[in-house]
Amino acid sequence: MAVTQLAIPTAALGFWLERLARLGIPHEGPVRRFDERTIGLTDPDGMLLELVAHDRTAALPGWDGVVPAEMSIRGIHAATLWVADAEATARVLTGALGHRE
Length: 101
Description:
alpha+beta; about 30% strand
């Protein structure tokens, strides 16, 4: 997987910028892509992550954890995959996970 994007409410953008800075977690942004603002970071294992702020996520339930519910991650926004065999990956995505092309 190249990048995993996690959805956050637009109102939570400042919270996440402050939290990352306070915890000393290197990050980039926010940058604007289309109608979304994105914060980029890398997890301890080197996985590329992005927090994507968008208004439509506010109505979704947040993930439980140490972050206040109104600021929490709402789910996976998108993922970019780099694969050697797109056909096998497509079978998993459409068969096992129920996505459609």
